[in-house]
Amino acid sequence: MSTREIPGMVELEHATSTIGTLTLLRGVLAVVFGLIALANPGATAAALVIVFAVWAFVDGALAIGAAVRRGQAARPWGWFAFEAFVSIAAGIVALAYPAITMLALVVIVALRALFLGVLMTAYAIRGKDMPSRWLRLVTGVVSIVFGILLFWRPIVGAIALVWTVGIYAVVFGMMSILHGVEIFGLRRLFPSKPAEA
């Protein structure tokens, strides 16, 4: 019996491919969001709230997709589900109060960065045999530091916040893209389908 004939092997290969794709999409989305923020530092607070909310919703939806695929593959999915909850909740709060001050947006962004940073760091620490574990760990630590800095200096100008959020999103996105590429690298562990005689 070939390795591909082992029960669940084809499903695991497909799930790995899907998880890699979703991770890459999250990374690309974060980089695009960050570049838009850096290119338009004079954007109004209302526009930034809307852009942040859209990013949080789409990121949350992609995290739900990753959680579902991991669950179907009988792999741990709770961290991804909680990431999705935090992202979507942040988006809802941002849209429910469009007139919030930039200080309130700083708090929302800081809380999201801290929550996701703690989750990613804990996930990396628990996953001792996880490939590319260091990428999750670095991304988690960067998110935590970013959140702490925002709480430490909450009275920042709108342009400074845009630049900070933009740089954070680009770094987060690049780490996610690297993580997605490494997940795709796991496909080499699956033997190719044998040629039919």
Provide a quick synopsis of the model:
With 197 residues, the chain is mostly helical. 77% of the residues lie in helices and 0% in strands.
Give your account of this protein's structure.
The chain has 197 residues and is mainly α. It has one domain: Serine Threonine Protein Phosphatase 5, Tetratricopeptide repeat (Alpha Horseshoe). It has six helices and no strands. It is globular, with a radius of gyration of 19 Å. The two termini are 16 Å apart. 35% of the residues are buried. The model has no long low-confidence stretch (mean pLDDT 77).
Helix content: over 70%
Q: What is the arithmetic mean of pLDDT?
A: 77
Q: Which word captures the global form? A: globular
By CATH, the architecture is named Alpha Horseshoe
Indicate the proportion of strand residues: under 5%
**Helix-strand topology string:** HHHHHH
Structural class: mainly alpha
The Rg value, from CA coordinates, equals 19 Å
Question: What is the count of distinct domains?
Answer: 1
Number of separate strands: 0
Please report the distance between the alpha carbons of the first and last residues: 16 Å
According to CATH, the fold-level topology is Serine Threonine Protein Phosphatase 5, Tetratricopeptide repeat
Instruction: Report the sheet with the most strands, covering strand number, pairing sense and barrel closure.
Output: none
The CATH C-level name is Mainly Alpha
Assembly state of the chains shown:
single chain
Which segments are poorly predicted (pLDDT under 50) over 5 or more consecutive residues?
none
Helix segment tally: 6
